[in-house]
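Dear colleague,

Thank you for sharing your sequence with our group. We've completed the structure prediction you requested, and as agreed, I am returning the results in plain text so they can be pasted directly into your records. Please verify that the sequence below matches your submission; if there's any discrepancy, let me know and we will rerun it promptly.
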Amino acid sequence: MFLYDYEMVRALNKECLRERRPSRQYQLAKYEERNKMSNKSKLPWWLKPVNRLIIILNRLGLALGTQHIISIPGRRSGKVHSTPVSLLTVNGQRYIVTGFETDWVKNARASGWGFVSRGRKEERVLFTEVPIDERAPILRAFPVQVPHGVEFFERLLGLPNDPQAFAAAAPRCPVFRLEPAIGDE
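Please find the predicted structure tokens below.
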């Protein structure tokens, strides 16, 4: 059995060399490396159930800390998906910061609008992604205004609890400005 697998790997490697593409072993190694570095593997196991609990409590009228619920239509299905986030305010503008490309980030880019709720108040908003060169002051404010969120940035990006380190991570951290939708009362 072992000899057969070895021969098969050699044959695949020769085929890959003829076609000038990476060997199967190389492709598997890269796949495993990507999976090791996957953001989902670094998130705590309890995050999804706690997020569900936060959404339920928020809909019952209990707002927790800086938590708000954003609801955004899916980019493929159009179905509205909700997730808890922490808003921060810089120079009178509201922002949402995240440490990596989540599904809600992709949906916000695709739709450009959604709902933000806290307790029983809900507001329709427009999501505008902040350009990379304008993210630094917003990211500097994050550890000060949302100290409970710093743990996730430490876990995902290896950032210390230092505003300058957050500002330096601007290319890796999507930031969205929230603006009230026009005509929404």
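Summary note from our side: The longest helix spans residues 2-19.

Kind regards,
the structure core
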